[in-house]
Amino acid sequence: MTKTPIFIIDAFADKPFHGNPAGVCPLDHWLPDETMQAIASEVNLSETVFFVRCSGQGADKGVQCYGIRWFMPTREVDMIGHATLAAGHLVLSRLAPLAQEVRFVSASATMVVRRNGTMLTLDMPPLVPTLIQTPDGLAKALGGVPTQVPASKHYLALFETADEIADLRPDFEALAQLPLPAVIVSARGTSEFDFVSRFFAPANGVPEDAVSGVAHCCLAPFWSQALDKRALIGQQLSARGGVIHCSYDNARVVLGGNAVISLEGAISI
């Protein structure tokens, strides 16, 4: 039996027990897929991230480069934002404290976590939504009728007010039966926030995600165009809540926030 280090890191948070918690496992080498899935199931957070130092060119040039993979409790997924920010925080605070940035490379995307003053930023590919016909059963499953429903990787159900978003009480079992795996709901914000959102992914074993980076890869392009603003501030109205600073330049989405280590230890394998 061996022991593998594991952390729980709260992303898009300034203090423990806020933002979105992720399991974070730095590895010397990749574990078997079934072992990583078992760890993610045991941790039972919305995502657990595993990363291994790159070999070859990145390492030769002294670049902080890691291969990265993400697992939900039930399956592997191809891109996660908050867990990548959490992994970047661990690298920049513990593993390479003198570095200014770290590059994470997966089979689907390259993402970069950078120091930016008192915050970290996460550079991600956009998920630009396009308008679709509202799928049968979506409104009933959400418990509210959206004004329109564009989609990219997930549905983006738009409502008139922030109060409507906060008041939604979805039927998660019904949402899990829709063709796309998750539903983002959003409306214009009030006060200091440009928009508000929530994110439901019951088909992936996560009824409601606390603060989703991937959702903001869709939200940032949509609201940037709708509000004619490059830089925006979004508020996710989950129980834990979170604030994400966003920018979109028609090529990449940059999300800003902090992260905090709330637990560390080792898992026996």
From TrEMBL:
GO CC annotation terms, alphabetical: cytoplasm
GO molecular function list: isomerase activity
Active site as annotated: 47
InterPro entries assigned: Phenazine_PhzF-like
Keyword DNA repair: no
Domain of life: Bacteria
Keywords of the record: Isomerase
Family of the protein in this entry: Belongs to the PhzF family.
Protein name: PhzF family phenazine biosynthesis protein
Organism listed in the record: Halocynthiibacter styelae
Organism classification: Bacteria, Pseudomonadati, Pseudomonadota, Alphaproteobacteria, Rhodobacterales
